[in-house]
Amino acid sequence: MRPSILLAAVAAESIRAILPRATVDCPSCLGLLSQLQPLAKSSTDALVVQLTGLCIQLGAAPADVCSGVVNGAGPVLATALRQINVTGPTGERLCGALMNVCTTKTPVPFTVPFPKPPPVHPKVWKSRGRVPFRVAHLSDVHIDRGYTPGADANCTKPLCCRVFPDSPPTPSAPAGPNGNAHCDSPVSLAESMLAAVEHLQPRFSIFTGDVAERLVWLVNQSDVSTDLHDFNVEMARTLSAPVFPSVGNHDTSPVNLFARSTSNTVNNSQWVFDIDGRDWARWIRPAAASQVTHHSGSYSALVPGTQLRILALNTQYWYIQNFWLYDSDTFQPDPNGLFSFMVSQLQQAEDAGERVWIVQHIPSGGSDFSVDSSNHYDQVLQRYKHTIAGLFFGHTHGDQFQIAYSNYSARTAENAVSVAMIGPSLTPNSGNPAFKLYEVDPDTYELLDSTVYFTNTSDGAFQSSPTWAPLYSARAAYGPLVDPPLPKNAPLGPVFWHNLTVAFLANQPLFDAYIARISRGASASVCSDADGCRNRTVCDLRAMRSQDNCDVPTPGFSLRRRMEGEDSGLVETKCEGVGLADVFRAMAGWA
Ligand SMILES: *[C@@H]1O[C@H](CO)[C@@H](O)[C@H](O)[C@H]1NC(C)=O
Ligand SMILES: *[C@@H]1O[C@H](CO)[C@@H](O)[C@H](O)[C@H]1NC(C)=O
Ligand SMILES: *[C@@H]1O[C@H](CO)[C@@H](O)[C@H](O)[C@H]1NC(C)=O
Ligand SMILES: *[C@@H]1O[C@H](CO)[C@@H](O)[C@H](O)[C@H]1NC(C)=O
Ligand SMILES: *[C@@H]1O[C@H](CO)[C@@H](O)[C@H](O)[C@H]1NC(C)=O
Ligand SMILES: *[C@@H]1O[C@H](CO)[C@@H](O)[C@H](O)[C@H]1NC(C)=O
Ligand SMILES: *[C@@H]1O[C@H](CO)[C@@H](O)[C@H](O)[C@H]1NC(C)=O
User: Which residues bind Zn(2+) 1 (predicted)?
Assistant: First the structure.
């Protein structure tokens, strides 16, 4: 028998009783999991009905959003609750994902095995000063194929611009055809960006993931299948050069939930890897396409006519919002063999005298990246630092970067070993739609410049025909302002970006300009010294390893919410959309 809504009401009272607002902490979250465990053990339905009732009752979200979100993630949570010791280490990790409590910066010790020691004499890559080539970096397009011009852009859901069953007959703010800040991207906006990219004639493009719209309570497997395939077709139709894409956390359904190979389920997202493997073969060639299909969405492929290999990783097995990671108490240092795949491809590249660019969705330095996996990831970066010439991430929707150091206790210019470029999003929900264009040295594959192109949604002509223009070039805007100024012809390497963070701490207007650029001038967020924001932000820029970032977990707030705060200046991740964490947040009294 299904528990009634009345029962849910009783549970809401009792859950509020064990989780009064002031004391949301690790023990109370573990206590909540202990309360939910018998429900999950009685049946998945029982848990889903109960959580849906609570979500609605506590006003965490509108009823349709509650039921869509809980129907998606609830069954995986139920599986986890049935299979783990909810008061043990796995329960603590689950509480980290759900309520931002029980978090730790101390990874489980694990030494990543490498097939060979580092080379004694690593290959030296020398620039001959030849004409650079261009590469476009696209990210987080979040195309909503249900976007309806004229539908209300002012609605009660997390995202608007669709006609919902309960939309008022007369919209108060009719959406224009090309996009709105309260909505994900219409197809026309994506096509406009692709045309702008094609006009710039890149040698190739990289795409750091997240195709699907974030109306996660509505989208199902057939919607996401269409989303993935249609965008692959649109890229192929408009871009004459190859694209090297990677999979994002929104590129499956239910969102984020990529099962591990050890999970007991039929929906392991293989359908995602089948679609992308088929569709990407035109760019990455059949051997790499077969890796996509057989290695959970990851692959490596040589860029034709170069010694540059693209290594695209499906980071979702390292993502704390993937609840499949909590379905067993057995610690898995390498879910789905992703690290062993990464190492094998890097070793082959090193042996072949190639350089590698890593292309992936989720930045390894954020607090939503497992602290364990981030530590393992850093071990791989350190081992192959001579082979890796670039890292490209998305997910945060912001124009940002992260630096890795050989010694995180001494984050100095001398110790800076790698830098990751984080690409801005297309979706107008996180700032003005944008992409990056790199100038690349054809001998070293290092970046000589990075220019953000954007379209201004506040511009009068945006709804009739969006125009794309450079916002700024990193070399022009930052090169002269670091101390000493960046020498002519020097690449934008890790040491340059480190020196820029030093300049940020010395030069408030320069730092303010960086903060404004994160959202392409759309958000008026302020990041000052008054609350330590500038120091914290610089610390996060200097932390490609998540255990070294300066995020302070705020219990009850999901990471995403905290970072979205207009005043935080961090805009850490806007990727998530509404999720199960919001339901738990409401239970904690924060709704
Ligand atoms: C569950 O974990 C807790 C905390 O580590 C431990 O005290 C308890 O013995 C564990 N229970 C079982 C059944 O293993
Ligand atoms: C948005 O909708 C609400 C409720 O329908 C209405 O009260 C409000 O005035 C609208 N806001 C705008 C900017 O149209
Ligand atoms: C998926 O959702 C769409 C509406 O977005 C609906 O038309 C379709 O029937 C659904 N498919 C399945 C398999 O539930
Ligand atoms: C890392 O830096 C710290 C602080 O300067 C220093 O004490 C330590 O010896 C360094 N570690 C290594 C391995 O160089
Ligand atoms: C970074 O700054 C240091 C001085 O702190 C300087 O020695 C070095 O040349 C600079 N590097 C670059 C790439 O600008
Ligand atoms: C976008 O356009 C608005 C309105 O013209 C203008 O105020 C704003 O400065 C522009 N933003 C950028 C980043 O150029
Ligand atoms: C920022 O951090 C540095 C040390 O890293 C410290 O000296 C300085 O006082 C901090 N500034 C603020 C405003 O907190």
Answer: 140, 142, 210, 397
